[in-house]
Amino acid sequence: MRKKLIDAALRHYSLHGYQGATMRKIATDVGIKPASIYFFYKNKEALFIDAFQQLLDNHFHAMERALRENKDKPIEQIFSAMLHGSVTHHKDDEPGTKAYISLVTAPIPEIKQHLTSHMQRYNDWLVDSLEAALKSSYPLMPSREVARVIKQFVLIGNGVFWGINLYEGKDFAEQVDLADQMIQTLVLELNQNCQNT
């Protein structure tokens, strides 16, 4: 029942926002009385913290899986796999992605600290993981250069993420292709810089 409540909470949040996603609507969606929700969650805030945690964890696990499955490949393939893993994850869960975008752009005061903590944890993992991958491929690369490459990759990934909400069909596919080209250019520049040092 918790899974159904979480799914309904995210669905209603993506459609109506936090205030409009009432316990009554969520209960009706799953076929129970509103009071029955309180058997599982002490209040609306607790339900939404659990729902958002699931949403954030699902994204985190998708990125961990993309990295794990490609960790022994060349860096451009790692970057591309992570980009495509993010796209696939967000495209396969459009209601969750809408909820995530809404949550990030207009954080709910009651949940903002929880969201900030998760975002920092994810960012730390991403930076550490990409740093390890870059150092494995380019052991002599200075730390400043590693940090610069990671920031560029994150900017590319963020652009594609926000494009999910702006573009559709062929237009979105073109955005992803352009992002892949930018990754290839980034790695080509990186290889040239490493050869010159």
What keywords describe this structure?
single chain, 197 residues, mainly alpha
Give the SSE map.
Layout lengths: L1 H19 L2 H8 L3 H7 L3 H27 L4 H18 L1 H12 L6 H26 L5 H24 L2 H28 L1
What does this structure look like?
Helix 1 runs antiparallel to helix 2 and helix 4 packs antiparallel against helix 5. The protein is mainly α. The mean pLDDT is 89. The protein is elongated, with a radius of gyration of 20 Å.
Concise overview:
This protein is mainly α and 197 residues long. It is built from 9 helices and no strands.
| Percent of residues in helices | over 70%
Radius of gyration: 20 Å
Low-confidence stretches: none
Distance between the termini: 59 Å
Q: How many helices?
A: 9
- Care to count the β-strands? 0
Question: Shape, please?
Answer: elongated
Could you describe the largest sheet, including whether it forms a barrel?
none
Output mean pLDDT: 89
DSSP strand content: under 5%
